[in-house]
Amino acid sequence: MAMARHNKPSLMIYGGSIKGGSNLGKPVNISTCFEAHGALMYGKITEADLDGIVKNACPGAGACGGMYTANTMATGIEAMGLTLPGSSTTPAESPAKMRECLRAAEAIKICLEKDIKPRDLITKESLENALVSTMVMCGSTNSVLHYLAIAHSADIHDFTLDDFQRVANKVPVLADLKPSGKYMVADLVDIGGFPAVLKFLIHAGLINGDIPTVTGKTLKENVWGAPSLDPSQDMIRPLSNPIRETGHIRILRGNLAPGGAVAKITGKEGRKFTGKAMVFDKEDDLNAKIFNGGIDPNENTVLCVRYEGPKGGPGMPEQLKSSGALMGAGLRNVALITDGRYSGASHGFIVGHIVPEAAVGGPIAILQDGDMVTIDAETNSLSMDVSEEEIAARLSKWKAPRMKVNRGALAKYAYLVGDASHGAVLDMF
What is the pTM of this model? Predict the structure, then answer.
């Protein structure tokens, strides 16, 4: 975003991913800790088990190791041509990451000589590459906010929330990566890193290899020498055997989200869920309920956290404790919905970014305990079984709560920020 705003020759150097941890011979990572906490609360593991996981989950430096938000954005930005080849999957502590830092000087020189500026590279076509990358790699829902905000910073006005669903309809999930899969992002180095993946996707016609990049070459030229994916590896599935035939990120609409919502549904948890609403006005209240064993494992429940959106949060604070704890506790009868956002490490039946948010009087503000809620990834809908007349009656009685912050920069942010369906950006004029 900063590169797009100042629009001077620039490139991004990604800090790199962390290595996977190991505890008692089993792979662990940051999300394992949150899931283990939930497992402890429901009596599935001991304090000693949790302690071992926490001590071994993060064995060194680097971004969270699955296809969480950082790695999602790094692969997407590499697919946009804004980094050197391999930046997104070169581990943080590897000698190759130091060599990348040294090679950056040569690339910046080329950008200066050829006057290659960020807005020459951040285009509708390169953003499309980023969306394809996110679907193929089973990336984070946070990418929706970030790509929309990047487009806004680059004054690309024909890139919208609907583009995500359009791409999801035609692009499969191929990467078996955590949080819902088997491998860590650092493992991709063993099969040639992200350049090998890009080479495969360009050959398959899913990625546009003709876009320009910071090297002065096209994306296709950048990955020409990358190894081809070995058919015997199972980190990146062939097109003939996808993990999911279409994208896992779904844009939902309905009487609970007339302005849109974002779901992350791989298909492993099913594609439709209906349950009774249990409503919370802040994430801490939900966490307390979960950790006190207050969720019935025998009844389908849709847990709703509201007033956590761009204005209500303010700033959409990341939610991971609740989703991680539910997975660790083995509560597969539960879905989560919110006008806030989730960590990229979250998985399960989750929906975020509900628009309009509760703080501005969106329908989520008048959802009540016991209302039946349906999440449908086939029809891309999010609805409550409440009539239009009843919704209107409830909204007529709703009163906006006092803002959590009433002075300073954060209060100004809450006053000026737009909705999540447009990237939660500030439009001051």
Answer: 0.94
